[in-house]
Amino acid sequence: MKLLNDLLRPVFDLLQSPFIGLPAFVGILVWSIPVGVFALWVFGKTSNQERIAEVKRRIFAGLFEIRLFNDDLRAIMRAQGEILRHVLHYQALALKPMIFILPPLVLVMVQLHQFYGFRGLRPGEEVLLTVQLAPDSVEAGRRPEFSLEMPPGLHAAMDPVWIPSLHQITWRLGVDDWGDWDLAINVDGTKFSKSIRATEELIRLSPERPPSNFMGQLEWPSEPPLDEGGAVHSMTLGYAEGSVGILGWDFEWAFAWMVVFFVLTMVVALVLRKPMGVEL
Amino acid sequence: MFGFTKVKLEKSLVDRISRFSEIAGYSSPEEFITHALEKELAQLEDADSEEEIKKRLQGLGYMS
Amino acid sequence: MTCLRPAAVLLACIAVAAPSTADAYIGPGAGFAVLGSFAVIFVTMLLAGASLLVWPFRMLWRAIRRRTKSKPLVKRLIVLGFDGQETTITERMMAEGELPNFQKLAASGCYSRLRSTFPSITPVAWSSFTTGTNPGKHNIFDFLDRDPRTYLPRLSSTEIGSVDKVLKLGKLRIPLAKPSIRLLRKSKPFWTVLGEHNIWSTIIRVPITFPPDKFYGAQLGAMCIPDLLGTQGTFLHFTTRPGGESFQEGGLQFELRANGSENSFEGTIEGPENSFFEGNPPMTLPLQIDVDRENGRALVSVNGDSLELEPMVLSEWVKLSFKAIAGMKVTGICRMMVTEMDEHVSLYVSPINIEPEKPAMPISHPGYYCSYLEKKLGSYATLGLAEDTWALNEKITDDHTFMTQTTDIDNEREEMLFTALDRLRKGTLVTVFDATDRINHMFWRYTEEGHPAAEGIEDPDYAHAIENQYRRNDEIVGKVMERLGEGDVLWVMSDHGCTSFRRGVNLNAWLMENGYLALKDGANPSEPWLQSVDWSRTKAYAVGLVGIFLNIKGREAQGIVAAGDEAEALKAELKSKLDGLMDAEKGSVAINDAFDTDKLYRGPYKGNAPDLLIGYNHGYRISWDCASGVVAGSVFDDNTKAWSGDHIVDPRLVPGIFLANHAIDSEDPAIIDLAPTALTLFGIRPLAHMEGTPIVDKDRFKRS
């Protein structure tokens, strides 16, 4: 996983570089085209197209039936039941291509989430840095030794807080200037680093330096994972959620981009299904 | 294609039409009126061009 | 785009509900697959909700609009029509125990011969079935009518108008109205009457239903729905053989050109006329055939699709989309077959049927009923006379191909029947199967010794095709009987029978021989459509299949016979000469009777009928030449075409069959009686203009 992330990181940074100064919507729009084409292609190659066409015909027949026998309640219910049955069948048929589409799609979306899910810090803002220690690295009752070297442009807004029950250390940082820093955190004599960015550009942000397990690395690929067995399990930086502007509306939500991306991908797939000869 | 338009007729005429449509063997007064008008129109309208008709004759299947 | 919204909502729900961001990634991925079906669920729910909400109001509206209260005596009336099923064969096979379900039905109810109409042909008989009236009231007297202004024949059942209003933009002509399509069958179908009393009817392929009737129910049209070329069935024949002459009847021949190699050929399918352009040039589709002689395969490429064909094996339905202008397509379906690929290469393309999913013309009521059936059972034949009898007549296809086509269509029809039957809880279902008639027509030659159309054919494969078809009909009847419940009535019927067609009679030649018809000086008497006739010296002529018209002053454009006494005298004279007309060569009677239609018909349209209706004897019929208006030749000649059985004879010789699961109170039921009987079964008094009388006493049903 680490190797894959190390490979993907520069690739996505490069691909994403043309969109740095542009509104998020543009980047999402451009990304949705190849992804839509890819998903459609895989769907066409890996699904049972004939059965899907057949099931869809039956679903449409059911819809016509509801319209045709709209005086006959029993016929309507029967047609509903049949449609439901065929829809379930359709879902089942869609499962197989999903298995092929999902892994690459998840990798792409995770990468994109690093760019579009959050926004960079701004001078004057404060942000929480949470360091999660491995539970067995601190014996009960002991307060670990920790410190943080504050680079110029940042300041500690409050004294760090140790929460023994959660094994968490929390700093509240104040941002004074634009910048791109690596925080150096010292815990019980070991140094850990965490990136932090105060920027207005659409660049990679790392809300979490992940633990070394698979899920962690899958979800947060922007920084190398922490060593297994070390004192620190993970480090989280509370970036503000990203926003997507559509038609003058600004949606501020970490997953707003995903909704837009999904809808656009669908549109691409729907538009291209006939030219590409794929039955969806 | 299947449009219908309403036409106003004198009520007394419609009454007479209704009375006689059944006697004449029509299924409805509307059919009576339609037929009467079509017969009149047929006197006035030109036949389709021969070429048009011949083209239509092609492939009558059953007959030739 | 509204269909995307539910998917987005779904995704949002997943994302909100998911504690881990990782789960959110599944959303779009899965959504991709779910999308189609999810939209469908959404639409379905909406439809269902709307249907449920609207239902009480709809019922109320129906109750208000209902004309009178009827008390149905039966729950369902199911009518199976086997077009042309012959009584003598049916009775013999029943007696031999070959038709067990027919026998069972007869034992539990009745079997009777069913009087047909004058003339005993499909469009006339089924129109009388539909309306309960004689031809004088429903206006269908023959397949063809003649235009008295030109003497040219025209289709009797449907009139397709042309569009006068067009917008001209350079070469482009944009029609500003749709052409009008009118059904010329008059009077009122009994299903329209049933609908006025809130009784549903599903009417599948009853002839003379194009354009379809509007009523409370569903209808798939049949005869005379045209093919995409606007004809009643034109097959296309692509061949490398020289001599691009088209067939005398029913088909068009096109050239296949070598395409740079001896294994690749190309041609052009000419589709419907493109009314968007001046001169209405045909829309075209390029066609390519690559033959692999070694493996006995041919690859036919058309419309961006390729299909692999084995010689002499019919393809499935193939879609052909002709482009009229950008964004406008006309789609048809056809079946193809490579008929040879040795020295020469030939491809048979069946008549291009109107595609039922998005039909180019109204072929059903409601308009989407044909699309519904397409979704249920896939593509199906929509042409009025769907079985390609012409290609077999012209020897382009063979018995086997014709039989395959016919059986496939019969299977489509059976599926339609059971789809409708399973969904009918109350009301009427009528389904007409055409195969029996077509097989009677094409395979009669094998059922008797010395039929001129079977000369030189030893041990034909389809010697028993007719009997096999009757057995198949019996199976369908059995399957329907299994599905009958309390209060269900089943009728099994045919509109007429069938007999041999060995000798053709050219009435126009006879009229000329006897001085009633004269030719223009120096005209070629072999010209079709009576083009050689000198109307100023002609008193009578034959057009269409069933009768003779007098050339009456004021009615015909160049009439010479005065209406009234002169016409009556002429009619009587012709009748006396035609009654019992002998075929001297064979020493047998060719015409039993010539009927005066003035005495035969009643009603407002009887003036459109031929003046005399010819009742041929067994073995005789109007000749092929006469039917296409050729005067030349002898009066009698042998019929050597595969089309070897027919029923355009004295209607008393070819009654239909009638079976029901109930007894009847009529000794001599007629097809015209069935519409009033159907109304009676649903507690509705037959309308005053209907002439048939119910064949059951309504007390019979009250008692049971």
TrEMBL record, chain A:
Record-annotated membrane-spanning stretches:
20-43, 93-112, 253-272
The yes or no answer to whether the keyword Membrane is present is yes
Assigned keywords, A-Z: Membrane, Transmembrane, Transmembrane helix
UniProt protein name? Uncharacterized protein
Species the sequence originates in: Candidatus Sulfomarinibacter kjeldsenii
Automatic annotation (TrEMBL), chain B:
From which domain of life does this come? Bacteria
What's this protein's name?
CopG family transcriptional regulator
From TrEMBL, chain C:
Q: Name one Pfam family in it.
A: Phosphodiest
UniProt entry keywords in alphabetical sequence? Membrane, Signal, Transmembrane, Transmembrane helix
The regions listed as transmembrane in this protein's record are: 34-57
Q: Does the keyword Transcription regulation apply?
A: no
Residues of the signal sequence? 1-22
Which SUPFAM superfamilies does its entry note?
Alkaline phosphatase-like
InterPro entries according to UniProt: Alkaline_phosphatase_core_sf, Phosphodiest/P_Trfase
Protein name, per record: Alkaline phosphatase family protein
Q: Which organism is it from?
A: Candidatus Sulfomarinibacter kjeldsenii
Q: What is the lineage of its organism?
A: Bacteria, Pseudomonadati, Acidobacteriota, Thermoanaerobaculia, Thermoanaerobaculales
